Amino acid sequence: MDSLEEARDDKYNEKHIQDRKTWFISECWQVKGKFGRIRFQFNPLSTFLGAFVLWAILIWAITDEETSIEKINVARRWITDKCTWFYIGSQFIWVILIIYIYFKYGHIKLGLSTDQVEYGDFDYFAMIFTTGICNGLFYDGASAPIAGYNDSTDNLLIYKGKSNHITQAQNSLNVVMFHWGFHGFSVYVLPCLLLSVLCYRKGLPLTMRSCLYPVFGKKILGRLGDVIDSISIICMGFGVATSFLLGAIMVVVGLQPIFPELADNQTTRLIALWAVSIMSMFSATSGIKLGIRRMSQLCFLTGALFTLIVAFSDNLWYLLNLAVQSIGYYFQYLISTATFTSAFVQQRNYPDGKQQEFDWMHKNTIFYWGWWLGWAPLVSIFATRISKGRTIKSVIEIAFIIPSFVNFIWFVVVGGVSIDMENQAISMRLHCGMNKTTRDALGAPDWLHSLGCIDEDKRFYMFRFSCSRHGHHLQ
């Protein structure tokens, strides 16, 4: 908080800031050079240590797939068993800190008094939202609500007094909104605010090591800072790899209805992965104004258009009711949901024999928080890069509050329609493996499926929207 207090006054002008930044960078270990027309500058220890760890794990996973999967799963379960309290508690505290900072320091400008905002509010929002969310909304849009709806566990986070399908559906939607709401965006916004103050008011370099300057001081300019940056590189590698893999799967599955002969195998997914990587590289190398800004606008507007089409093609009044109800339900149970650690179920001597329910925490909340944290260094640094000249209040509103509500609307629309379709399938007694003859005998339309019978990566493309109010179906 001292940095924020000191930042109220313009202690330095632009020249002082640049001089300090130059000095800080000069104190860090770096290699400069030129290869043809290409100039490069990097920190050898941070770069090579991060690259070594990532490549070592990659080679291990390729050469010994079974053992690597087994060992990684053991590590994941150990983290869930020992560190759930830290994951859940830290995310909760971060949200509280952001709320406190919003009201206490919201007026502070992230930069000097003469600094101007470089990007408009919509451009700023679109870039942070699309960078931070990636393809997760599409992968989980229909899959996560259905997975929770059909979950047979007795996990307290999913089933708060479960007694019927209505409560079950609402709790499932609530958990999805929790995983994609304020607590997720907190790991982007808080480092962004800290980095912005330190970089634009104190002249520190725009790197993750600067976040620990208030704790370690100039020690971050040495080997300690190099290790911090290398850990950030490793986190980014795992976070991006997870999203890129899910994106490649979504691309292949989405193309199969158009090209039925397209096989969903490792080779096809690898080609899709390279295609996604090349497009991402093109967007990044085109710069912020030309590549990232335009691509972000296109992605967000396309997603918004899709959401509107789905909402107006289905029962709009049902979705409006569900939006008000679900957002109210979310805030009603927010504290208990945000602090749930599945502690009693974790005990191996749990009297009801429900210790296996602890797997839910391992596969859901802990996975999501790890996924968000994997992207945190990349997104927070990028958000800092485009936040110069804004106030803390503006950043929190546009990068924390609004994106959370946008996600809520997305899951209410896509998740609500998916659950409604699942309910229709249940009411018509459709089940997994049912042949067409039996379906026809039950009078089930071709568009109606039990989404719980479909693989997670295919649910988004399989759900259809019942539009009985308008007397038609969107196929």
From TrEMBL:
Keyword Protein biosynthesis: no
Compartments it resides in: Cell membrane
Entry superkingdom: Eukaryota
GO molecular function annotation: transmembrane transporter activity
InterPro entries: BCCT_transptr
Recorded GO CC terms: plasma membrane
Membrane topology qualifier: Multi-pass membrane protein
One Pfam assignment: BCCT
Keyword tags: Cell membrane, Membrane, Transmembrane, Transmembrane helix, Transport
Signal peptide (residue range): none
Chief location bin: membrane
Coiled coil regions, renumbered to chain: none
TM ranges: 45-63, 84-103, 180-200, 233-259, 271-291, 298-320, 326-345, 366-386, 398-419
Alphabetized PANTHER family for the sequence: HIGH-AFFINITY CHOLINE TRANSPORT PROTEIN (PTHR30047:SF7), HIGH-AFFINITY CHOLINE TRANSPORT PROTEIN-RELATED (PTHR30047)
Name of the protein this chain belongs to: Uncharacterized protein
Organism, as annotated: Clytia hemisphaerica
